[in-house]
Please model this.
Amino acid sequence: MKGKYIMALDQGTTSSRCIIYDRSGRQISIAQKEFRQIYPEDGWVEHDPLEIWSGQQEVAREALRKIFASAEDIAAIGITNQRETTIVWEKDTGRPVYNAIVWQCRRTARLCDELRREGLEEPWRQKTGLLIDPYFSATKLAWILDHVPGARQKARDGQLLFGTVETWLIWNLTGGRVHVTDYSNASRTMMFNIHQLCWDQEILQRLDIPLCMLPEARPSSQIYGETDSAVFGSPVIIGGAAGDQQAALFGQACFREGEAKNTYGTGGFMLVNTGDKIVKSKNRLLNTIAWGLDGKVTYALEGSVFVSGASIQWLRDGLGLISSAAETDELARQVEDTAGTYLVPAFTGLGAPWWDPYARGALMGLTRGAGRCHIVRAALESMAYQSWDLMKAMSDDMGYDISMFRVDGGAAANNFLLEFQADIIGQPVYRPVCIETTSLGAAYLAGLAVGYWRNTEDILSNWQLDRRFDPRMPELRRQELLEGWHRAVERTLRFSE
Ligand code: ADP
Model:
């Protein structure tokens, strides 16, 4: 087998990155490039697909150049990506017919209302694991077919192709020869039947989406094809792909049922491995395909928090209370507690398990003694409370407790946060050395496909603990704090209705 390294392409919402890994899971080289965010109207978000493709090539070449490596040094490429973002392009020319409609874009809210009124939420949820929402690709794709002149007819005639971002990248990397998606990405389109692993005819029919424009859905770890020689000089195998959150679950080596990872980024994402079961959620959590590997499909329950680390950004940029995110750790420790203060960062409503778009943020329980450190501490604590809410919803749905709670994301660097998180969930929190779990997960999936790593045991032995945080808070105090949090949340619900 040729190739000393695995290359991960990490195509995120604001930047394209390339990270090169060695067999021990160590980063050997990294390159990153931001790209334009396009806001044509209030609530609309777009990207230029050609800019994504050119930027991704640039960072890949730069990452190779930095270590004087070439295509021959790469055993395989793995891809991870912002999920749900929708691209439609011409099969013959590769030209996008419209900008990429980004997952955040709310332009199809009305169509989603209509679908819900038609009573489609429950049947579609049964099939796709998702709730009807503009986030997911289906209504974005329908919008493009409805609004770009002639698009639907061209699509019917087989002249247009649809893809989420990994599909777009693989198609371009292979010089237009391979049109595939992986199961984890397919499961975010709201067109994919996650039980039968195929595109759903009924959904396609309702939205008038021609099947012939959809990619073939494949396992997440598999040789999809080789890069065109024009890309890196000589061909490189493309060995895997997964959506960013699922890739992170894989990168965290959460291979067993009941193991979860929690990401503290701008928003927060918790996924728990539910094995081969699709757990029906009573708390409006989503079912998603974690990955397809070795002829098996693994499912996950997913919940998200809209504002997690973003509340720390708000302390810095909105309030001017801090000058850097990192200093919050020390500031929070300067006080014993928040003196009864709670920050509910419902700036854009609340996600699972509340699902209230009309909730608005609040700083509550203030007394004359409350100062800067109390507020900073309340912001960090709110990140932990929100994760507790997700975790509780998940355990409720699964009927048993999460067995392993691993963390990553930018704010997982904060020790105070993780100590408090352990206290609030009443069980240990594990932080790995490598918190770049998303790209690492993509690298692992690709490496497994070409035998660079033999099996998940190899990967598990790469997972290295940086620190374990153990709970120390008395149970009574924990209950008291959680009660306070829930009283505060209660008061923010439906505020702007
Ligand atoms: P994303 O990939 O979602 O853009 P990152 O995983 O890079 O975000 O995390 C960045 C977020 O984490 C920011 O919202 C920032 O405020 C927060 N953050 C970064 N470092 C810290 C820290 N030491 N303590 C608390 N929050 C932090």
Observations:
- The chain has a mean pLDDT of 95.
